[in-house]
User: Fold this.
Amino acid sequence: MAKTKKQPEVPAIGAISKTLTGISGLDEITLGGLPAGRPTLICGEAGSGKTLFSIEFIVKGALDYNEPGIFMAFEEKAEELKTNVASLGFDLDKLEREKKIRIDYVHIDRAEIEETGEYDLEGLFIRLGYAIDSIGAKRVVLDTIENLFSGLKNEGILRAEIRRLFQFLKSKGVTAVITGERGENSLTRQGLEEYVSDCVILLDHRIINQISTRRLRIVKYRGSVHGTNEYPFLIDDEGISVLPVTSLELNKDVSSQSISSGVPALDKMLGNAGFYKGSSILTSGTAGTGKTSIAASFANATCLRKERCLFFAFEESPKQIIRNMRSIGMDLQKHVDKGNLEFYASRPTLFGLEMHLVAIHKAIRKFKPDVVILDPITNLITIGSVSEVKTMLVRLIDFLQTEQITVMFTALTLNNIVNEQTDEGVSSLVDAWLLIRDIENNGERNRGLYIMKSRGMKHSNQIREFIITDKGLDLVDVFLTEEGVLTGSAREARLLLEQTGEIIHEQAISRKDRELSRKRKVLESKIDSLRSEYESAEEELNKVYVEEALKKQIMGDTLSKITDLRRGTLSMQEKSTSKKGKK
Amino acid sequence: MGKLYELRLYVAGRTSKSIVALENLKKICEEHLKGKYSIEVIDLLEKPQLAEGDQILAIPTLVKKVPEPVRKIIGDLSNVEKVLVGLDIRPRITD
Assistant:
């Protein structure tokens, strides 16, 4: 040891310095990465992803942080390793040519080694030291050093040398990752955790109900705060992504901007505006009530606003959804072609809940949507318990709210207790809850929609009938009568009845009108006849007056004639009087 | 026995173990392989790049390159019998 080259390394005092791993999510959990200049032990069962973890640590270091790294493989040959990680898009050959990484395969074959007497592992130290110095490595991986135990017999020497190896790595100032196979009752078979006291990460690969879930836990991290939970992680074609359980503090930004639900009538119910941006909406209902249609309509509206929508389908395939929505007048294909809408379909049973969550996270980070739809969340219960699903959703909602992404879940309500619990469980998390209920009446089934809650919004408390037509979705007012709520054909019938009533009423009015005019005519004619009667009476009267006047005139004439004749004789006067009396 | 033994002894500086190993090796060779061996001592402190080629971990390591098969004997070579077995001079006793 004393003879190997030493680099002066100033140990950090106070807060320990950390090295970013570049592994998605891990740096969040460890609050900054692995302890810099110190060894970290990654242990786990066979196939838990130790090698991949460590190679990603090296590759990301070389690519993203300009920290060259040594990968010392005790298990896999360099070529095998290169082939294995090529599927993740890591071109180790290229990196090696650029002197950014170096892969050193340490081969130990017990069959060709004979041990006799005292020895030490100075050869390994020299080799490692030489490799580190040759590319100026800042990162070192030993995968897995326990293989030494199968190659060499003298355990006493090995243990002493491994202890010395860690000291050597520290003195070199490299951030090292040592992998170890998990033992029966200890973290590693050979008790490596005794030697690495700074940071120990445990990888786990569990199969529960035939569904596998990978988890990661930081067993210890000396001198640093770290997440203590088990974090799910995913290995896919882009390497490892760990899902940090985001801080469940309720201090997210909120938006008072609202976005349309895609159904104008529904927006009207929601305070004339729609949903708040960045809120979470639950649409629940029994089978066949049109939950997916509401979700698709929301997606459609989002895309029409030229925003991006990510649709997680756990029940139907994207093609099925597109076809079905076309039948109600929504062309989702158009949005898919434009790249505003993306479907992410997977069977819930494909992998465990946690893995789903990680996959959802990843897809969201990649697509950067404004709206996310999960249809339906209830299908996830097939792969996890109610409480697990709830935990998952809490985390998902939390993540989405921080990202200001609006999310709509659909949930199937069945008439059994377990699922009612889900409703309640989730409902306390969501901001708005639309409930679609079957209303069965008069031998037919209709849909009734109401808003169970909508936080921070003056929303309608009425049940609307939810109708699906070939032009889209709509909500219509239901009829409230003494017989109860009328929907569907009963509503139509009622409507018809009212219309008929109106016509009859109108007719009655017009009949009255006609009668009135007839009466007027009668009266008018009566007035006419009375007037003519009056005229004839008047004429009669006039005749008398005229005769009288004539008589008077004639009498006057006669009187003057008599006076002329008589010249004062009395007998003539009498004659005229008698004549008058006769008349 | 016309075979020539090409032996390489990897050491790291002149440590006591290395010196003991070289002395033991020379003794054994003189005794059993007189006239048909060559010993090359490689000091990894001087040529660290050579450690990878012969897959050297332990120090000291004796590598028998020729004749085949390649054999490695690690340690200070204090057990003569084991060294002879390792060099395929004595038949291997399966344990």
Remarks:
- Chain A touches chain B at residues 3, 104, 106-108, 112-124, 126-127, 129-130, 148, 151-152 (CB under 8 Å).
- Chain A has 16 helices and 25 strands.
- Residues 1-13, 416-422 of chain A have pLDDT under 50 and may be disordered.
- Residues 49 and 324 of chain A are 41 Å apart (CA to CA).
